[in-house]
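TICKET: design request
STATUS: open
ATTACHED STRUCTURE:
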């Protein structure tokens, strides 16, 4: 394990729960992790769970002012960022007829605007060899009912990722994405499904996944950690499915 002074810094948005926290735990073995979130309870939990050198910051992913504060704090403390995992996101299951302007704005502000501008603001801190990873979604590749606006926002993220990968390659910065399928995270509790309905959803989804189960945050974290590592030194512009084979089935 590297000494604290020599450890690279990994910045993870939405890093206080679910996939983000699982990734922070894994990256913390070799990195000093900085995580952001906006829920006071998950912020407190992350401070308890992550190592003592971790930095846990309250920030709303859609707020450019919060992004400025995060980057200022990271710049003052560390000066460099080696890994940026743009993970913060929201997703609501709604039929097209039920989508209103507030839902649309929230999805694109958090999932697209927040990610684009945080990357822009972090760019001066990214040196050659740095890795940027976006969190996309299975719904970009496989049409799913009630996920139209969420899929559209994540589709924008993937298109942006590919263009950024080409643009930043001359600087030696790699840009990739993961597209999780059904993953067991606290976000499932925000789908608006009751206990029985959620259990039925898990069973139905598991039956459609070739590997026969819903994934875990750790499943995605392992792939993000690979993309962040020297083992992926020749990988950029890639979108890796972490969905138990659901995209192809």
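STATUS: resolved
RESOLUTION: sequence designed for all positions
ATTACHED SEQUENCE:
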């Amino acid at each position: 394990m590297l000494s604290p002074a020599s450890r690279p810094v990994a910045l993870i948005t939405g890093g206080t729960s679910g996939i983000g926290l699982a990734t922070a735990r894994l990256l913390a073995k070799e990195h000093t992790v900085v995580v952001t979130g906006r829920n006071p309870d998950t912020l407190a939990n992350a401070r308890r769970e992550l190592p003592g050198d971790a930095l846990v910051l309250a920030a709303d992913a859609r707020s450019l002012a919060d992004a400025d504060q995060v980057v200022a704090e990271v710049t003052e403390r560390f000066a460099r960022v080696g890994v940026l995992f743009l993970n913060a996101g929201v997703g609501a299951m709604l039929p097209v007829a039920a989508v209103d302007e507030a839902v649309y704005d929230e999805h694109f502000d958090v999932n697209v605007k927040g990610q684009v501008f945080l990357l822009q603001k972090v760019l001066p801190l990214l040196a050659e060899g740095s890795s940027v990873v976006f969190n996309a979604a299975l719904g970009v590749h496989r049409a799913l009912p009630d996920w139209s606006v969420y899929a559209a926002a994540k589709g924008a993220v993937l298109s942006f990722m590919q263009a950024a990968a080409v643009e930043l390659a001359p600087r030696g910065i790699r840009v990739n994405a993961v597209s999780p399928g059904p993953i067991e995270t606290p976000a499932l509790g925000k789908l608006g499904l009751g206990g029985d309905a959620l259990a039925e959803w898990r069973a139905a989804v598991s039956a459609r996944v070739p590997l026969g189960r819903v994934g875990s945050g750790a499943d995605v974290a392992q792939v993000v950690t690979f993309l962040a590592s020297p083992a992926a030194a020749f990988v950029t512009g890639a979108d890796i499915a972490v969905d138990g084979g659901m995209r192809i089935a």
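CLOSING REMARK: The chain is about 40% helix and 20% strand. The chain has one domain: 4-242.
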